[in-house]
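Tip: read the tokens left to right.
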């Protein structure tokens, strides 16, 4: 579904030992133990302005809805209407990803669907619409399955989507659920063949005895049709649930990571993969950590990193050995004994790791902070940003409602100068690495009034609360920004909030 709003200005200025979660997922720890082109303009957190270009809703069926919020009439396709307040669990967006040019934006949801949005062409008359995205294609990527040998249900939820660089007119992307990775081809067709010799116009085979002449088939124009076809299915290689996929810079291989292993695949071979990391101990009672995320280096096809639930990052070089059981570099920040608490191990678990576009830095996200690491310095991060430090006093309640296990993602902008990550109450945070300024913005329909200026949000921890502040006790922990994406070369961002996808761009004067 697509919902276009008038432009809106946004002022920016698991218990130990390891236990099993439902569906066999390995859980976290719960008991403490002893370079694209530079951006057209840089974001100045706190100084620039952002515009809500459009708010998109993930369709609950392969039907599209287009409506204008400033009028009462609603244009409905296929007699189908879905309001955002009736979102089901299957509608919740579980991943967001721009392609390499930024012209396409893909989302995956818990219902196993992939929705691709295409950017509007620039118009001299409507410059403010240059970042608007409309539905391009919708298809069912994964279906729910059942593993009869293990008596486990395999969810259809899309965990990750990764685009491949465009080589021809078609687009290719990888999508994965807990067990199976699929390679999809998305292509356009605007012509159909006519004039078959052995078939009639309705496609039925003709009697050969009635064929007395031969004719040359011709291509006739037809309405544009976007087709999504699965080209490869990579299955039966993971015992545990896949949490990451990453395309290599050689564009011939990719890797998939689960809780204990990382596998290397060739795009042309579906029945065999190479295990490059295996941290599973001979005795599972000796297990102390799990893999949480993994990514290839953007330029060096032999290098990759993976993070763990202990807050560590390992850099591996595939040239050293076939099995990268020994890391090349080990990144870990020593823990401050004064900050040690019951929840230290849980909140130090890394939920996302990303190489910078330059390949020089690594960004990691744990529960409370975002950290930037230099590949040449392993003992501590060069930058640490507090995302929502005001929640440190709320960790007990966050543990009770399982929010402490939420996996937030983080992204770089195109020039690696700004980083973005999500928080609760539909807040998302931006940190400018050059000016050290930060801003908190909110992706909310209630605040999406036409042409309204949305000031940066501030959270009050205690004491007297100002008029424009929100108390930490009033935060809605059911509303969370887990998945975000940044356009590879422009200041356009996509923020997923439940079943809503908000697209913002920098203000054009």
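Filled-in amino acids:
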């Amino acid at each position: 579904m697509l919902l276009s709003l008038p432009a809106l200005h946004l002022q920016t200025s698991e218990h130990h030992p390891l236990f099993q979660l439902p569906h066999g997922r390995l859980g976290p720890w719960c008991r403490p133990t002893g370079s694209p082109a530079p951006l057209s303009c840089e974001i100045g957190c706190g100084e620039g302005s952002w515009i809500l270009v459009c708010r998109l809703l993930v369709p609950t069926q392969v039907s599209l809805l287009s409506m204008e919020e400033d009028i009462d009439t609603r244009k409905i396709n296929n007699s189908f209407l879905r309001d955002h307040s009736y979102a089901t669990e299957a509608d919740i967006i579980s991943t967001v990803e721009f392609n390499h040019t930024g012209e396409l934006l893909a989302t995956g949801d818990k219902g196993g669907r992939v929705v691709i949005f295409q950017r509007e062409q620039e118009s001299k008359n409507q410059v403010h619409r240059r970042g608007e995205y409309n539905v391009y294609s919708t298809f069912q990527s994964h279906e729910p399955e059942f593993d009869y040998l293990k008596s486990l249900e395999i969810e259809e939820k899309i965990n990750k989507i990764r685009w491949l660089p465009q080589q021809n007119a078609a687009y290719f992307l990888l999508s994965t659920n807990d067990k199976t990775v699929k390679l999809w081809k998305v292509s356009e067709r605007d012509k159909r063949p006519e004039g078959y010799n052995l078939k009639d116009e309705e496609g039925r085979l003709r009697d050969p005895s009635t064929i007395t002449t031969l004719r040359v088939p011709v291509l006739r124009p037809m309405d544009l049709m976007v087709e999504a076809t699965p080209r490869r299915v990579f299955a039966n290689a993971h015992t545990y649930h896949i949490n990451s996929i990453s395309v290599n810079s050689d564009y011939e291989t990719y890797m998939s990571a689960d809780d204990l292993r990382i596998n290397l695949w060739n795009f042309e071979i579906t029945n065999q993969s190479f295990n490059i990391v295996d941290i599973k101990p001979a005795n599972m009672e000796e297990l102390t950590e799990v893999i949480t995320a993994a990514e290839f280096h953007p330029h060096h096809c032999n290098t990759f990193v993976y993070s763990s639930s202990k807050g560590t990052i390992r850099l591996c070089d595939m040239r050293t050995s076939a099995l990268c059981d020994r890391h090349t570099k080990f990144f870990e920040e020593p823990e401050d004994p004064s900050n040690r608490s019951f929840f230290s191990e849980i909140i130090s678990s890394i939920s996302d790791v990303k190489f910078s576009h330059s390949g020089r830095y690594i960004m990691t996200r744990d529960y409370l902070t975002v950290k930037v690491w230099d590949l040449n310095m392993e003992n501590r991060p060069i930058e640490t940003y507090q995302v929502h430090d005001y929640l440190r006093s709320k960790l007990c309640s966050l543990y009770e409602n399982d929010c402490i296990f939420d996996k937030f993602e983080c992204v770089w902008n195109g020039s690696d100068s700004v980083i973005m990550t999500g928080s609760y109450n539909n807040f998302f945070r931006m940190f400018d690495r050059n000016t050290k300024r930060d801003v908190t913005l909110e992706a909310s329909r209630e605040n999406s009034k036409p042409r309204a200026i949305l000031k940066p949000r501030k959270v009050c921890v205690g004491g007297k609360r100002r008029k424009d502040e929100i108390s930490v006790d009033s935060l809605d922990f059911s509303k969370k920004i887990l998945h975000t994406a940044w356009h590879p070369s422009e200041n356009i961002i996509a923020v997923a909030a439940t079943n809503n996808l908000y697209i913002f761009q920098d203000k054009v004067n």
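DSSP finds two helices and 37 strands in the chain. The longest strand covers residues 218-234.
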